[in-house]
Amino acid sequence: MLHFNKKPTFEQHDNEKENYYQNSSTKIDFISKLEDSIDADICIIGGGLTGISSALYLSKKGYKIVLIEARKIGWGASGRNGGQLGGGLRKDQKEVENKLGINQAKELWNLGIEAVEEVKENIKKYNIDCDLVNGVLTAGYYKDDESYFKNEAEHLLKQYNYDKYYFLNFSDIREEIDSKKYYSGLLNKGSYHLHPLKYLYGLAKEAKKNGVKIYENSPVSKISKKSDFLEVSINKYKVKCNLVVVGCNGYLDNLLGNIRNKFMPINNYILATESVNQDYASAIIKNNYAVCDTRFIIDYYRFSKDNRMLFGGGETFTSKFLENPKNFVKKRMNKVFPQLSKLKIDFCWGGTLAITVNRLPSFGSLNNNIIYAHGYSGHGVALSTLAGKLISEYVTGNKDRFHFFSSIQHQTIPGGDFVRRPIYSSAVAYYKLRDFIH
Ligand SMILES: Cc1cc2nc3c(=O)[nH]c(=O)nc-3n(C[C@H](O)[C@H](O)[C@H](O)COP(=O)(O)OP(=O)(O)OC[C@H]3O[C@@H](n4cnc5c(N)ncnc54)[C@H](O)[C@@H]3O)c2cc1C
């Protein structure tokens, strides 16, 4: 059985008509459904950035690849996210050092930088038009963020030779963002923002050119080990293969058994306003950076190429998706930008992502022939591209860099399928309260 007592997570929401990205990109054709049993060297499950980038990198090594997606390519978080392309992980670097030690922390940092460079390289190499813009600004919601920002920038410069952080004081941040919410800021000129679905379609098109067979509307219910091969079941059809790559992230459910307990699937929501003119947009965010704040439940936002405010924020933890998240997100946007409250909201959608306890990604393999990568904890645009590259290295025998990630220990979220959501919600309520008191 794929799920327990409820619809699979990939059937929990159906809000693609409300998704700005779907409405601003040209879908490419894939095979509409698997309607026969087939053979492949490698079967990839999940048509998000993890699955598609794995397909692309592996197809370049000459493997015969079949990719199976339950819904549509880019239907999951990869076609719904905030589009922030950052190298850092969802932790400040000193915290990573405390957890892993300086050497491993440095290696992790370098892999994060490589991940961003890899995305930029792909965009260039495959000529993907996906609205890439430089600069992500972390806006300090609290007064004491200022010392944290200064220390982080100084530490990264000294220890990592990273010179792309710029500290913004009170007047700088007010000049950069027309909101009264922030006290200071940290600009990262090594980070970017982009249209994630256009980027994903660009990679998928390239994978198709390399001979990858991509099937949509084909939910996998089981992966079975046979005597000398693996069998992936999709309704009554099977894919017979030697290796399986699983890239289902927040939508995984129990396809890999208890591995689902190593992360929490959470739902996050974004709105897109009507388009405004360039002067209006520049008055709100002077230099067109993407922005996120320093709270536990963050706001993140930016302008799209056609000058819509794309504002993300607000999370839910129940397995049920908010049917109409518009007011939920709008309330958060109005608090930051009361001057935008009169704008029409043209789109509002959400998606599910996987958060690990330590906020570091979770890679691994079962019996060396079922490989998975997920749990990017809100930093998956760059890391999932890197995951594809590292999975292809692993498959071709160069396992070190994949093992680097797979050796990171992940805590199990307690409570099993029925109680872990309430347990997690209570933990988050604590952090929300801390934010409130702060
Ligand atoms: C609202 C939101 C905002 C975000 N903002 C950012 C951001 O600004 N920057 C950033 O770096 N990250 C962000 N993220 C996270 C980022 O989008 C994800 O980490 C990343 O897209 C994960 O890619 P993936 O391919 O692993 O998973 P997904 O893109 O979720 O793809 C998984 C796919 O697997 C399919 N699937 C699941 N089960 C099965 C099955 N049994 N059979 C077949 N197919 C199956 C699903 O249908 C889905 O299409 C955000 C996420 C959300 C939801």
Describe this structure in words.
The chain is an alpha/beta fold and 438 residues long. The protein has two domains: 9-80 and 197-263 and 358-428, FAD/NAD(P)-binding domain; 130-194 and 267-354, D-Amino Acid Oxidase, subunit A, domain 2 (D-Amino Acid Oxidase, Chain A, domain 2). Helix content is 34%, strand content 24%. The chain has twelve helices and 19 strands. The strands form three sheets. Strands 4, 5, 6, 7, 13, 14, 15, 16 and 17 form a nine-stranded mixed β-sheet that branches. Helix 2 (49-60) links the parallel strand 2 and strand 3 (65-68). The structure holds flavin-adenine dinucleotide. The site of flavin-adenine dinucleotide has 44 residues, from helix 2, strand 13, strand 17 and helix 10.
Known CATH architecture of the largest domain: 3-Layer(bba) Sandwich
Largest sheet: 9 strands, mixed
Count of individual beta strands:
19
| Total DSSP helices | 12
Look at the structure and give the CATH class of the largest domain: Alpha Beta
The overall average pLDDT, rounded, is 93
Residues in β-strands, percent: 15-25%
Q: Considering the protein shown, what is the CATH homologous superfamily of the largest domain?
A: FAD/NAD(P)-binding domain
The tally of domains stands at: 2
The ligands found in this model are: flavin-adenine dinucleotide
- Identify the overall geometry: globular
The name CATH uses for the topology of the largest domain is FAD/NAD(P)-binding domain
Instruction: State Rg.
Output: 21 Å
Structural class: alpha/beta
In the predicted model, the low-confidence regions spanning at least 5 consecutive residues are 1-5
